[in-house]
TrEMBL record:
Alphabetical GO biological process terms: proteolysis
A Pfam family reported for this protein in Swiss-Prot or TrEMBL: Peptidase_M14
Record keyword Protease present: yes
Peptidase M14 domain segment(s): 29-297
Cofactor(s) demanded: Zn(2+)
InterPro entries: Peptidase_M14
Active-site residues, record numbering mapped to chain: 274 (proton donor/acceptor)
Protein name: Peptidase M14 domain-containing protein
Residues that span the membrane, as ranges: 7-26
Organism: Candidatus Kaiserbacteria bacterium RIFCSPLOWO2_12_FULL_45_26
One GO location term (cellular component): extracellular space
Family that this chain belongs to: Belongs to the peptidase M14 family.
Gene3D superfamilies: Zn peptidases
SMART domains, alphabetized: Zn_pept
């Protein structure tokens, strides 16, 4: 006959068996959740942040944004600027965006020691006047217009020619072809010119390329001290690779207050790449020119 101690042990065992049986029954109605674990980060699983670094660096007279797109993390910066003359030279902005697309697609690689900063359009108000947008667009979206003959969209919303508003031989009025144009109330009076000045001061580029149209020529920059030796090297390398003409000193008509000249005055080599037409980005030619520029740095 079992003792009192044995009875207690039997009761405990019975309770344990009941608990297990109930648990087994309940488990038949629920799926056991799959247990997953996060992999330990390794060199293979860690990825770098997506490029580009996109930043709003200023606004136009009418409040449209001016942006930079930055690629690469090297210590040597090259600056590229399109759309200084807005809709009048819309294909220079298109070229800048094609460059951006090639960088994002990985078909154009930034060398490890370099860094590219791109301003697609410095004059978004002038671009909007002709194209109807101040941002990305494609050539097929450009409506038929007379901008290339009348100059519509060339100036900012204050009717100032931005490429006469910089601090190199600045004066209130300058020329464009045979026309007298406003250069603003003083050097850097316009918000767009102030924006480029700020970008140059912050980024400290070793060279600057401006895209314009249309002369089928690469021009060197100069101010009171003349053309910088490195500017000539950049001009020749880009022009030869892209199959453009090259001119070391612009003499078609007198100008003052140009951005390239201001850069020359502060010791930064700059070139003006004038596309051959006003209807094409001429990307393949300019890609070759950019690669030649890379070769110098």
């Amino acid at each position: 006959m079992p003792t009192g101690k044995n009875k207690i042990i039997g009761i405990i065992l019975s309770v344990i068996l009941i608990v297990f049986a109930v648990g087994a029954f309940l488990s038949t109605d629920k799926e056991t959740p799959e247990v997953t674990t996060e992999p330990t980060p390794t060199e293979e699983t860690v990825t770098t942040p997506a490029l580009p670094t996109n930043a709003i660096v200023g606004t136009s007279v009418e409040g449209r944004v001016i942006e930079t797109y930055t690629y690469g993390t090297g210590s040597t910066t090259l600056l590229f600027v399109g759309g200084v003359h807005g809709g009048y030279e819309w294909n220079s902005t298109l070229l800048a965006y094609e460059f951006i697309d090639a960088l994002e697609a990985g078909t154009f690689i930034v060398p490890a020691h370099l860094r590219f900063v791109i301003i697609p359009t410095l004059n978004p108000d002038g671009l909007f006047e002709v194209v109807g947008t101040s941002g990305r667009f494609i050539a097929a979206e450009i409506p038929p217009n007379d901008a290339h003959t009348t100059g519509r969209g060339r100036f900012n919303a204050n009717d100032v020619d931005l490429n006469r508003n910089f601090d190199c031989k600045w004066k209130p009025e300058s020329t464009w072809r045979s026309k007298v144009v406003s250069a603003g109330t003083e050097a850097f009076s316009e918000p767009e010119a102030k924006t480029l000045k700020r970008v140059v001061e912050n980024e400290n580029p070793v060279a600057v390329v401006f895209w314009h149209s249309q002369a089928n020529t690469v021009y060197a920059s100069e101010c009171e001290a003349g053309v910088l030796p490195q500017t000539l090297a950049i001009m020749n390398a880009y022009a030869n690779a892209a199959n453009y003409n090259s001119v070391s000193s612009f003499d078609a008509y007198p100008i003052s207050g140009d951005a390239e000249g201001w850069l020359a005055s502060i010791g930064i080599p700059a070139i003006t790449v004038e596309l051959e037409t006003k209807t094409s980005s001429e990307w393949q030619r300019n890609q070759a020119g950019i690669k030649a520029l890379i070769g110098l740095y």
